[in-house]
Amino acid sequence: MDQTAFQQPPGLPRRTVLRAAGAASALLGLSACRAAVDEDASAAARPGTSGAPSPRRGGTLALATPVDFTPSLLFAQSSMSLPQRLLFNTLTRYDDSLRPQPELATGWQSAADGKAITLKLREGVTFHDGRPFTADDVIFAVKNLQNPLRAAQLRSTAVAISGFEKRGDHEIVLKLAHPVSNLFDLFEFMIITDRNSVEDAVSGKRLIGTGPFTFQQWNPGSQLSFARNDHYWLPDRPYLDAVELRIIPQADSLLSSLRTGQTQLTYGLSGQDVAHLKGNPQFRIKEYATGAGAVYLGVNVTADPVRNKLVRQALAWAVDRERIVRQALGGYGLASAAPWPASSPAYTEANAKHYGHDPAKARALLKSAGVTGLDLPLLYASNPGGAAIAQMLQYDLQQVGVRTTLEPTDPATAQKRLISQTMPALWTTSHGFAQVHPSTLAVSAYPFNEAKNTSKFRSAAYTEAVQRAWQRTDSDSAAARAAYQRISDILLDEAFLIDLAVLASLEVSGTSVHGPTLNKFSYLNLDNAYLA
User: Fold this and answer.
1) Which residue of 78, 197, 303, 368 has the fewest CB atoms within a 10 Å radius of its CB?
2) DSSP β-bridge partners for residue 499
3) Which of 499, 390, 375 has the alpha carbon at shortest distance from 425?
4) Which secondary structure element, helix H or strand E, spans residue 365, and what is its range?
5) Beta bridge partners of 195
6) Per-residue pLDDT tens digits for 224-262
7) Model-level pTM?
8) What are the start-end ranges of the E strands in 251-370?
9) DSSP readout, 374-396?
């Protein structure tokens, strides 16, 4: 098969096409694709190449997190998703430039019209119970996300897959009802679970995947235990014998556990807490360029008087984003009125600065709307930094005549209320999904979903803009960027979600910890992690 026969995956720039073209092969050239990409992937993942000590096998990594595992949200991305990649693999993973790399899919070829993609699957992979991984498991994973009973943000993209054609156990064609620009977001998001025990998984009884560790025990509110998978498909991995994930809700206690060596790694500290560790030789601090989502002020547009767009815009002008980054986030993060991190193709500085801190303008808009004496509930998720941000919002809004009553809520309950659309007039928490393809935010994230969002906002113009950005085969053209800008324009004008700051994704580890990484959905990858 010659080089021109390789098709570009939907929504990806041409430079991301697999680099195996030119090698003759059966199976539409997918075997050659696999060989070339696997070599690149293994080279990129090779540990011990940046001045770090050579990998050492053995040891137990103690990982601290402020939020407990919630089995019912297994297929949703949330602050509880950190351990997903310990147990489960995905089809592909992005590199730092949003180029897909192989995981359980080793090669792929897209149809020219973007309405089908052929996947070559990794051979020799088994689930933790010994059952071989096959194309049937991919079919199950897609249908599982299509199930409306599952809480899963990328359901819209999964539903666009309208058919399957198996070509043996390790090749499958996914047929799409229409092109989607974020198909590889789905492939990185969608964990491959054992189809025979999925109901046990969502109840927390048994968690069976193909990942580097096996599930041992869950003590709710205390810890999860994982042991090395001796039959993992990646040769000689993982290095660690075990992982203990300890639930430590209080930031002070979590910091203390790190300082005393009781835990060695966390992603659960706010920038404000991490700032206290700067310059301490006992720790390494790593900031991921794509961010960790964003904090925002949500508005239920069915509540009075925030159903009025002028009132919502007034709230957007009232908040001091720079102060939130400086004080609540410890200087880590990007003050922004738009959801996009600087790495996103949808990011522009103009969008980020659309709403400055202008209390006078906020008061003028409230006066224009005929609104005085506002007193509104403000729910917030009581995770690290959540209370500080809620208190700053309360102060800023009070300066323009809007009183708020704070309602602290545990993160799991806040997430469930977000999904069930039962939020009060105002709430503040964080959202994800702006760090991947821009259309994913608006078709998948609960706060932004054009078809059904937490704010209960509906708009034909918003739906049209989102669908135009989503149902396309290019992602980096002038037309694509114009489509993203149209989404930003509507978000900023309607202000049903008022973005405050793009969060920094912060990893804090002891100096003995090497090699952990996060994927774009904050699943922790410990394939190459070791203690030295």
Assistant:
1) 368
2) 296
3) 375
4) helix 359-368
5) none
6) 999 999 999 999 999 999 999 999 998 899 999 999 999
7) 0.80
8) 265-266, 283-288, 294-299, 334-335
9) EEEEEEEE-STTHHHHHHHHHHH
